[in-house]
TrEMBL record:
Keywords: Signal. Residues 35-199 form the Lipid/polyisoprenoid-binding YceI-like domain. The keyword Signal applies. The keyword Ubl conjugation does not apply. This is YceI family protein. PANTHER family: PROTEIN YCEI (PTHR34406).
Length: 201
């Protein structure tokens, strides 16, 4: 092996070690144990579906989200409860918002809140895991498991302790009695994403 080849190999090894060190350095620190309240100003729930049977991807958000987290040093003892007001849906299109709030879809008058309550939480040292629980949507309650990622931990502007998580899952809306326009108007499969920032109480 030539000297130049050896030097290149050593450089690559050093670079790989550096990347590994950076990855471990920027991994989210464990969240301090305690009870946290969701900060509605910095949290949001999204959903995404295929439009017109999958011609494109359509996304909307809910602006009113609340709930609580119980963070434990043993992740399996942690808990989460999230409530979302269905009439807070926001597509940036008034007519579409009105239709989605109607009995064709979320039926926001009869079912003003959708909620998720955890039954089991797993989280590894890298801050990745899952949260299983019961999703209540459109008057139907079914078990759903979200992929869970701990984003970060830190202090707010007033010194308050904050934590951040992202939870994602895919459900079928027909499982919750929302069969309007399947699949022509919108796909049955719906991708869910909840971005949570919470404040320690």
């Amino acid at each position: 092996m030539s000297i130049s080849t050896t030097r290149r190999s050593m450089s690559l090894a050093i670079a790989a070690a550096g990347l590994a060190l950076c990855a471990s350095t920027f991994a989210a620190a464990p969240a301090p144990a305690g009870t946290y309240k969701i900060d509605a100003a910095h949290s949001v729930a999204y959903f995404e579906v295929g439009h017109l049977g999958g011609v494109s991807r359509f996304m909307a958000r809910f602006n009113d989200i609340s709930g609580d987290l119980v963070v434990d040093a043993a992740p399996e003892k942690s808990r989460i409860k999230v409530d979302v007001r269905t009439d807070s849906i926001d597509t940036k299109h008034e007519g579409l918002d009105k239709h989605l709030k109607s009995p064709d879809f979320f039926n926001a008058v009869q079912f003003p809140t959708m909620s998720f309550a955890s039954t089991a939480v797993t989280l590894n040292a890298a801050g990745e895991g899952s949260v299983a629980g019961n999703l209540n949507l459109h008057g139907v309650t079914k078990p759903v498991t979200f992929r869970l990622r701990h984003v970060g931990t830190g202090k707010g502007m007033k010194g308050e302790q904050r934590v951040g998580y992202v939870a994602t899952a895919t459900i079928k809306r027909t499982d919750f009695g929302m069969g309007y326009g399947v699949p022509g108007a919108a796909t049955d499969e719906v991708d869910l994403r909840i971005n949570i920032e919470a404040i320690k109480q």
